[in-house]
Amino acid sequence: MIAKKDFENMRKELDNLDNQREILIRKSRDIVKLSKKVIYSVHRNEIKQAGDFVKQITSSVAELDKTAKKTPMFYYSGPFKIAIQEFVEAVCYYEFVKNKKIPSAKELKVDTEYYLLGLCDLTGELVRKAINSAINNDYDKALFIKKFVNDIYNELMLFEFRNELRKKFDSIKYDLKKLDELALGIKLKK
């Protein structure tokens, strides 16, 4: 004989899990959107507006973290992982432009792997900032960014990355190549 009550409980459990997953996906999507707002505001030199978005995104990440921790498998899910690495990229970019430094994983209260993924993505935004700085004849800023990305690369070279982190880390080499070419162009111009 089938224990119908057990099957009913399992259905409720899976329905609840599905509802929680939908909430996590929605919150993750909102964080990705906010990350883009932070980055675009910084690129447009709207630092105050970017700071407001940073406050919003930090609060949203805290909420997302609570949601994910209720169901541990969500903590390692794709939407959560992407949201956190986008958060790291956006806040680090904001802090770099505003204060010439980036916050640590501990300061951002994020997992090391997700922090490193976001940091690898950060270099692409820094390349864009360096190119725009050079276009605007701010060569010192462009060269400072090149040195900073080089420092990140040198630190990350000491890790033994695998899988996704390895691929993202490898992309920094291409970012550095662009920055080297930019620096050479600046030197030749001077």
Description:
- There is one protein chain.
- The relative contact order is 0.09.
- This protein is 86% helix and 0% strand.
- The chain has eight helices and no strands.
- With 190 residues, it is mostly helical.
- The chain has two domains: 1-110, Methane Monooxygenase Hydroxylase, Chain G, domain 1 (Up-down Bundle); 112-190, Translin, domain 2 (Methane Monooxygenase Hydroxylase, Chain G, domain 1, Up-down Bundle).
- The mean pLDDT is 94.
Oligomer: single chain
Please tell me the CATH architecture of the largest domain by its name: Up-down Bundle
| β-sheet strand percentage | under 5%
Number of strands: 0
Order of SSEs: HHHHHHHH
N-to-C span = 86 Å
CATH C-level category of the largest domain: Mainly Alpha
- What's the mean pLDDT score? 94
Give me the number of helical elements. Answer: 8
Quick take:
The chain has 190 residues and is mainly alpha-helical. The chain is built from eight helices and no strands. Helices cover 86% and strands 0% of the residues.
